[in-house]
Amino acid sequence: MRRACGAGREWRQAVCRSQHGLDGFKHVNDRFGHAVGDMLLRKVAERLKRAFRAGDVVFRIGGDEFVILLPGTSEIEATYLAKRAIEKISVPFDLGVGIAIRIGLSIGSAFAPADGGEPEVLLTCSDHALYEAKRTGKGRYRAHVRAAN
Is the pTM of this model over 0.70? Predict the structure, then answer.
């Protein structure tokens, strides 16, 4: 993530850092093996790239978690894009295993500079929002809730 946004960089402009976790990926990996799981991750990445805008940055940070950087994005725009990504990932995948693969997507986001300017802070905030999205039911989007001063 540091490489994508510049090491040591602090975001002063509006940017949404969105974290995506796949719902049901572990089951696919366990049932069909790692080769099919890897193929699924590539297909997910392709769909995510199509769900977002040309200037947005999509990358996988490990396992079944993806991060999207949305520069110059309002919270309203981020909500729309997140819902669009959830819809695109919910369409079954054909991976040549005899049945359609169905997974879901949960998303948590944080916004710079409102939630912090350092990548690590935004990662923590969006991770908390992702956990909340998964806790309230799979296939959800949650923005980080800022603490009241």
Answer: yes
